[in-house]
Every structure is written in structure tokens, then in C-alpha cells.
Amino acid sequence: MTEEIIIAGFGGQGVLSMGKILAYSGIMQDQEVSWMPSYGPEMRGGTANVTVILSDERISSPILTEFDTAIILNQQSMDKFEKGVKKGGLLLYDPNGIIHHPTRTDIDIYTINGAELAAEMGNPKIFNMIVLGAFLKIKPIVKLDNVIKGLKKSLPERYHNLIPLNQSAIEKGMQMVKAK
User: Which of 38, 39, 131, 174 is the most buried (most CB within 10 A)?
Assistant: First the structure.
């Protein structure tokens, strides 16, 4: 099994940390992992993306031009990465702020209203965990207990009290994801 993923959105949406948690989760499952972030100098508010590869075999290169999965969180990223999803692949996106929705018919398309759900749950910072939960419902490539271990590894210890909230956000994303 090899899964090649791009996660893309604005800086400040938790794009890079979502990728890092996914990568740590793969490590907890004894998978080969690649995590390669990319962001502009402006960080918050600028565009950011991260490629994550999880595999049972050695990964030859972290550089991807096509993806099994694209997780898209803003219009600029949709414009840039929709065409890079492999035929038969997956595109998951939050429709908030998306003007031109994906039109491809050769991929599976899902939506998650992560921003709206995070606001309902009272903490906009869990947006990325809602989206991660939606992805893991569609493609359970890592187990939830390994995601929790990944959170513990990724978050500074002073934030470990937020792990139950993050777990609730992941579970909410799993419940609320919709096929388009």
C-alpha cells in the first residue's frame, strides 16, 4: 500500500500540522513516511501545502506531481491541485470559500464543512482535525489510536490537554463527511 497525498490551503488553517500528524501516525504503524512542507514567506494568510507519502515499501522520492488524494482548503489550492489527482483518486474539500467547485468525473469527490463544524464545536483551531477525520473515514490508512499517538508526538506537552477535543473533532469529521 502506498498513499500519496497533498494537503493544501491557507497558512494558519493547520495544513502543515495535519500533514505532520498524518506522518507521525504512519510512523506509529511502522510505515515508511515522507512529509514535505511548502509555504510562502508570508505564512499566515499565504498559501501552504504539504505532501505526505505513507507506504509499506521504501519511498524513492518525496516529490510528487500526481496524487492519490488531494485535501483542498481554499480556491487557490483547488485551482492548482485538482488536475493533479490521479484518475480514480480522491479529492476532499471544504466548500467554505470555494467558488469553482471541482468538475472532474474520473475521481471521487467528497466535502466536509470543517470551518462550520469547528465553529459549532467552539474552537476554530480544530478545523484541521475535522478534515483529517473526514479523510480517514473515506480512506482509513491509519488507525485512530495511532492518530492520537501522532497528536501526542506532534503537539507540545503543554497542549496535551487538548487531545480529547482533537479526538472529538476527528470523530465529528468522520460522521459528517459527504460524497458529492
Answer: 131
Domain range enclosing 76: 2-179
Taking a C-beta distance cutoff of 8 angstroms, is the pair 21, 151 a contact? Answer: yes
Q: How far apart are CA 130 and CA 168, in angstroms?
A: 8
Find out whether 50 and 67 touch, Cβ atoms under 8 Å. no
| Count of domains for the chain | 1
Helix (H) or strand (E) holding 55: strand 47-55
Residue whose entry in the numeric block shows the C-alpha cell 506509529: 28
For the domain that residue 60 is a member of, what is the CATH number?
3.40.920.10
pLDDT per residue over 26-52, tens digit each? 999 999 999 999 876 655 567 899 999
SS3 89: strand
Which residues touch 141 (CB under 8 Å, ≥6 apart)?
Answer: 1, 3, 26, 54
